[in-house]
Amino acid sequence: MDRRKFLASVGGASALAVMSASQKADALEQAMSAELETRVVKSPICNNYGFGQPPVVRGGKLTKYFHMGHDPRLPLMSDKPTLVEFFDKRLGSVQHLLQSARLAKINGLPEKMVLACLLHDIGVGGLLRTDHGFWGAQLIEPYVDEEVTWAIRHHQSLRFYADEDVGYPYPEAYIRFFGPDFVPEEYIRQDAEYARNHKWYMSARQICINDVYSFDPNVTVEIGDFEDIIGRNFKQPAEGLGYDKSPSAHMWRSIIFPNNFL
Ligand SMILES: [Fe+2]
Ligand SMILES: [Fe+2]
Predict the structure, then answer these.
(1) Is 245 left (phi over 0), alpha (psi -120 to 50) or beta?
(2) 111: CA distance to ligand 1 center in Å?
(3) Using one digit for the tens of pLDDT, what is the confidence trace for 101-151?
(4) Structure pTM?
(5) How far from 100 is each of 146, 209, 213, 214, CA to CA, in Å?
(6) CATH fold of 83-256, please?
(7) Nearest ligand to the C-alpha of residue 95?
(8) What stretch(es) of the chain map to CATH 1.10.3210?
(9) Dist. CA 18 → ligand 2 center (Å)
(10) Which of 10, 44, 66, 182 could make an S-S bridge to 178, C-beta 3.0–4.6 Å?
(11) Ligand 1 centre from 123 Cα, in Å?
């Protein structure tokens, strides 16, 4: 980005001079996203677990080792982590997930769909916002019923398309988030069309219907309220999530050790 524009955004060269390296990095990122004229939201791996990146000094002598292993700034995870432990110690957007699952329960959905609502945005809260339905589904695939992951994967596209007949209008929040003229990418449209014609369409749609956008501040939901449903519907590996050599074990490990250099 243009250096003069950046300096103006932080209040001039003297203001920049008194900033720490990480403040400068934050300011630069903010200025660059302002220039894009859209709000950029980084992955929770960067936002929640990262603490601003110091600039990488190339060619110089290292004065510190790179971080590996458990990050002392984060809650220490056990050597056999459970899904509930991830809720307690790592995941973001937890109230959104809990309140969505609570609503699904009130609406009388079967247990596996309550679980689907409980985990529907685990991709957002644990890994990446972009393509969150796909990331989230892949993360939990070895441990849940196939219909649960199918529904989570495809709620991502269906949420952009209203189906008033089953009680799902286009979310008012999306007009605020993305503007009134937002049109989803073609791959999203194609995915929604595929999902619309699938036998499990209503399972994915139920996630959208029970997606709680505005939280009720008078309601407190705890992950403990769902421990029975998790116990019956989520195959917790004895070795712990991340250490069971499943096809998604590395994804859980990345959440345990988000700041490892390698
Ligand atoms: Fe979602
Ligand atoms: Fe959601």
Answers:
(1) left
(2) 19
(3) 999 999 999 999 999 999 999 999 999 889 999 999 999 999 999 999 999
(4) 0.82
(5) 20, 9, 9, 10
(6) Hypothetical protein af1432 (1.10.3210)
(7) 2
(8) 83-256
(9) 41
(10) 182
(11) 8
